[in-house]
Design a protein that fits this description.
mainly beta, two-stranded antiparallel ribbon, 5% helix, elongated
Length: 156
């Protein structure tokens, strides 16, 4: 498989083969199940450049002395005219006395093209390891004495 970028129309979708969610065709990783969808360097760079445009987090706490609560989580998406584009039931459940449920909604926006990569700047330079001494030279002890094979004299 080629790592060359394929042209993709903005907003075009496909089905994730892992979780069956509808995702953008240009993504390299599914935002739902986080499985890889394709191995494309440009798509990966686009996804890394994603901006979290919105993030909301909240908790629903059930009072300890009351009967269980049932809940449903619905997400609605609307255009600039207020018309509903999508509505999705995400989860349902029940909370017993004293239980909590946390919900996080996030919206990420992606550029239509991969950003230009700047030349990487090394953070540190690691020196090359010294070449090991030949086996015939022997083994060095902590005090600096070099043990040599029989027939050769030890040296310091």
């Amino acid at each position: 498989m080629s790592a060359a970028a394929r042209p993709v129309a903005a907003g075009k979708t496909r089905v994730c083969p892992h979780c069956k969610a509808v995702v953008l065709e240009s993504l390299s990783v599914c935002p739902g199940c986080r499985h890889h969808l394709r191995f494309d360097v440009e798509a990966a760079q686009r996804q890394e450049a994603a901006i979290r445009a919105l993030e909301i987090e909240g908790q629903v706490c059930h009072p300890p002395d009351e009967d269980p609560y049932e809940y449903d989580i619905v997400v609605g998406v609307y255009n600039e005219k207020g018309q509903e584009i999508a509505r999705k039931l995400v989860a349902v459940g029940a909370l017993q006395g004293g239980e909590r449920c946390s919900v996080r909604l996030s919206v990420e926006v992606l550029p239509t093209r991969a950003p230009e990569k700047a030349e990487p700047v090394p953070l540190a330079v690691v020196p090359e390891p010294a070449a090991p001494e030949p086996a015939a030279a022997g083994r060095r002890l902590p005090d600096g004495t070099l043990l040599t094979p029989p027939g050769l004299k030890p040296r310091r």
